[in-house]
Amino acid sequence: MDAGNSEMEPETGGWLLESEPLLRALEFGEAGAWRWRIDTDMLFWSPNLCGLHGMPRSEFDGSLSAFQMDVHPDDTQTVWNAIQETLKTGQPYRAVYRSTRSTAGKAVYLEARGGIVEDGARRYLTGVCIDVSDRIRFERALAVRQQQAEAVASFGSFALSCARFQDTLDEAVRVAARIFNAPLTKILAFGDLADRLELLSGIGWQDGLVGRGRVGIDAESQAGFTLNSETPVIVRDLETETRFSGPPLLREHGVRSGMSVIIPGSSDRPFGVFGVHTTDIRGFTTQDAETLLSLANIVAGAARQERALQYRQLLLREASHRAGNMLQIVGSIASQTFQDQAPPHLQSAFQARLMALARANRVIVNDGWTVTRLRDLIGEVLEPFAGQLETEGRDTVLPPELSFDLGLVLHELATNSAKYGALGNSGARVHLSWTVNSNDGVRALRIVWTDPFTREHASHSGSGFGTQLMRDLVEIKWDGRFEQSSASGEFRAAIEIPLNGNHPSP
Q1: Which of 78, 89, 223, 255 is most enclosed, with most CB atoms within 10 A?
Q2: For domain 21-131, which CATH number applies: 3.30.450.20, 3.10.105.10, 1.20.1260.10, 3.10.350.10?
Q3: What is the third-level CATH fold of 141-308?
Q4: What pTM does this model have?
């Protein structure tokens, strides 16, 4: 340095001992300092603490009582418990509380941290206090968002596994009521003529409205306005709403705030509207609306599945009806063709086989032409002999074409038994069992028919048409095995059909 310049003194921490620099540092750091003389009512505050609490300086008189009056009543005990714990253990003090004041209509949250210091014979609890309102609001908003996301995910799982569409709708309004803490929720759907919306499901509405309530689709109603909007509709206060007047349904229930979103449809026309309403002023957020839209999209997916199922069932019923008509036509043609050429008992056998096909077709169609429970097939085809059957076997499902052929095989076995065996004797019973076995990776269905016959079984020689029909279906079409035997006063038929692939042989 130049000889004319004196050396600079090193900076020290002395400025911390001066109140003005320290107070300015606290102010810039948006923190306030405090000091409470333990076991007294004396509390010292830095001037900016009044501002942090939203309190005019003139209202703080330097007492602990004044501070306690400024703490929100719901948080007073929490703060005092934290103070007592510090006094008892000597551990650092920390508490988060609300002021009784508010800023711009929002609650003020403060966090106090401190510890015990001693000054001679006096003991003090001293520390700092900062405004943590933004942090608390962010944390709470994040927690709410997380809860909403978990609720949406749970509802999605429910909708995927739910068998009844109405149950999905009812669960949707329950979930919305719970996560938004809303007393009124509803799902409106277009009626058949698409000229109004019908209240399909809801919570909080007057008795009898759900299932019968109607709402117009004009733009004067919130639902109608929602249908014409590309984004969710949020209503702060229905009393001051200018975009629409609100339908009588909402006003009769004292609705003030709410939000509504479109439930997408399977075509250009929406399925309906999902609405959430409260009777107090509520500030629903865009995140709330997004959550409601997520629920609505899940409902939309369930609605599309329901519509596809109904259409499929309609087609299956129509196909079943036409198949039944075709079998009747075949039966009529056969009767007219063979009436002078075939004996009556052959005509009756032919008609009975057609009826067995019709019964099998009916149970297969009822199961949606996908898979059929073997127990249901047996119950339908052998229904005339239900009181004489003993069945044993696990719940097994079969493909529709195999079910169709097995229905005919079971009919032939029952017809033979009715003529020559147990089903022709009111006191006798047939035992029918089935298992699914696996051998070298090949799964096979095994059915055993056991008939304690008492009369001579002329048709069990294996040469009759019914026996040949069963053998052809099992062995030629399905690559299985058909065996029958008569011994010790008992007739036994065993059927084994491979299930891997479930495709008949060409």
Answers
A1: 223
A2: 3.30.450.20
A3: Beta-Lactamase (3.30.450)
A4: 0.59
